[in-house]
Amino acid sequence: MTATAPPPAPASSAPAADRPPPRPPVSRRRGVELVLLAGAVLISVCGYAVVGLTVRGAVPGGAAGYGAGLGALALLAHLAVRCGAPHADPLLLPVAVLLNGIGLVLIFRLDLATPGHHAAPAQLVWSAVGIALFTAAVLLVRDHRRLARYGPVCAASALALMLAPLAFPAVNGAKIWIRLAGFSIQPGEFAKVLITVFFAARLAAHRAAPPADGPGAARGAALRILRPVAVVWLLTVAILVLERDLGTSLLYFCIFVVLLYVATGRLGWLAVGVLLAGAGATAVAVLEPHVHSRVADWLHPFAGVATGAGPGQLAQSLYAFGAGGLLGTGLGRGDSYLIGFAMKSDFLLATFGEELGLAGLTALFLLYAVLVARGFRAGLGLPDPFGGLLAVGLAALPAVQVFVISGGVMGLIPLTGMALPFLAQGGSSLVTNWLIVALLIRLSDRARRPPGDAPDAPDGLRDTVGAEAVAVAGRAPEAGR
Prior knowledge:
16 helices
């Protein structure tokens, strides 16, 4: 009896010891994102139904349509992320959908208190426009590094958008709106994203610049790179002062200082920024009557009550927060509609605080904190300076807005008239915030990709920022890279 020899191994096969270990499967967590999206839509629909039951004693007739519409928009955004950014952070989109849904619920609740002024249907339409722009941005912006090329174009476009409202009459003391044929838009909302792209591109060029010979040469190279950033920032502040928009000017200043600190790593810039912001705010408060009146209301919120003229908007807002207590009066049971014309925009947070209490406010601020933290995390994971700075700048935009508007409504700082991201009524703000989330998702997708799956930059793009920095520093860029 003879033994049968085993078949010979193929000549091309390598020994098992020489084979590289198989790469572990990468979890993209798109299923987690889908489950979280379903939960966000469900929470929003439940809030919509609770408002109807509380105010009218019945579930609103449009609850099913509202849930279907919000669910369809969330599914469209999820499919765009699954196809265009499969490695993106799974928390960014669900948090944005939940905030958007909560905003729709609050506006619908205030619509029931003001039967002649319905804003929720228009806000739902703007939500659809924002998610459509979100989808386009996720699918079309294949490589964020391309945006660094258009830094000067973004700066020029932002300045043009900010100048446009000067040709139109002021609304509530500020010239920040363009109104034509019953349609209004706030171009400054879109300008803040363009300015952030410009700041990130120029400051990334500063970080990528090679060290110059001698301290004098290094200082001169840094000034040549940073001078355009300072000039553009000063122009934006001057325009915003002319438009009496203190809130947006403060936003741009904070973004400029934050990115400057991240790019240079010097704490001194933060100290200088705080001093300049304080000096500028004091000067504007003294010289500008519109801003001076807001500072006076902040310092003496109950002056109208003492003189018998009745409480003003800030006093009504403080009453609403006080009435809410720890757990709130219940969704639909508050009286914050007494605030007046800005209850659906600037003072929407007062309704939230009154009806959901301190517990609800804490949960809301934690949602914003998650959105900002995941944006910062994407910036930490990006290998290129421009991407890291852009992620930090975009994540800082909603962080500063939430601080400024929340502080103003709660009486911690003077009111500035900014919109609470995703919640407050306003199509321009809502669409812009969806664009910010789209860019953060694109950046997080690049940051979370495994090294072997990261696409190479197209020809001529790999060292765009670095080559620009070399040219500005006075050295010829390397050819053929």
